[in-house]
Amino acid sequence: MLIFVQIAAYRDSLLGSTLRDLLEKAGNPENLRVTICHQYHPDDAFNAELDVYRDDDRFNIIDMLYHESRGLCWARNLIQQHYKGEAYTLQVDSHMRFIQNWDTVLINMLVSLQERGYPKPVLTTYPPHFEPTAFEYREVPPNQIVLREFDKHGVYPIGWPAEIPGWEALTAPVPARFLAGGFAFSIGAFCQDVQDDPHLYFMGEEINIALRAYTHGYDLFHPHINITWHYYSRRESPKHWEDHAAIEAVELLAMDRLRRFFESGEKTSGYDWGIYGLGKERTLRDYEEFAGILLCQKKAQPYTLKHLPPPNPRIYPTEQEWLDSFCCCVNNVLHIPHSVFVKDDYDQAVIAFAADKRIVHELELDAAGVAAMIQRQFDSYTLEVGFSCSHLPDSWILSLHSASSGWEKKIRGRMPYFVAGLGNFSIKKCQVL
């Protein structure tokens, strides 16, 4: 059974070692068909590491000068055009390590899910981290992907790795809400049915694929054991957004496309989603019920926020009661200008969070809390906040109390993710109103 391996690599010094490990750890390396989108700079010394594979019939290398690259989703879509009917497909990043016989393990895991009644399963997760200079196999908890927050644009849910509860006793994969672009294994048709949308840039890719996969009849699962490891920091490798100008504008356009997709599925005027639209086997609402997330409203059910496995239980007798069960999750960093703090004797602060001018949450700080916030100095004072509430706040209101003069004038600011006509919003930091 052939495996179509997809690897999008951008000026990555670990690509060569990833390919070596991929082959050495495979039980049947002769069954691999590897397509690489090699986005390179001519001066990168490690480019020559690919030469050993150029005459290997198992490899298809798409060489692309770095300045011609349009981003991760575009590169992955380019790779998917080279699918030739292989039985399985594996999408991984170019900085990975693998367990022994990873291919056999994944195929057996996928087949076991098919035998349980899931004809189109997808195995996916955020693998544990490894350091290239000191990698050694050791047993660590496998990860599930949980909801952390919505992104800074307020458009899509951000997944986060968290230990699978009770993993030591598990003998089979567990259901998943989210998909990881850096590790996904499925039947080969997956890379035809659910191709990466090349109009997206980087962020938002994973929820786009997860939603479309679910509506195409695919079921997501997290492996109950670790199959791969991922190098997350990549300190020594250039990033696409570092090499290209005006990336913020590109990302904003991509976020606008993703937002419109969530709002209307496939029927927004002026947008022809084509093969990048929803499937026909399930609906967007089916996914929202399964995952316990309202994509347009940026809300989640407490069951989801507790990191409990899907599908979410449908225990509400009416549609309105089901809708009322959702709340907003906020995990953000507020940036407060230095100029706000004009005295040195603040002993209390209250930060109120408002949605459409209505207070939805309040946070109180004592003298120690105020002092801790002031100590975190960058280009502004920063405060990490995390809470859930009925409506997603668009602004915050800071009230400071001075021991010498009492309560001072309130300071107002926008939440970092607040979207008001995307094009007018700076994603770099919060704006003071």
TrEMBL record:
Q: Which InterPro entries match?
A: Glycosyltransferase, Nucleotide-diphossugar_trans
Instruction: Give the highest taxon in the source lineage.
Output: Bacteria
Q: Which Pfam families match?
A: GlcNAc
Q: Per its record, how is this protein called by name?
A: Glycosyltransferase (GlcNAc)
In which organism is this protein found? Chitinophaga fulva
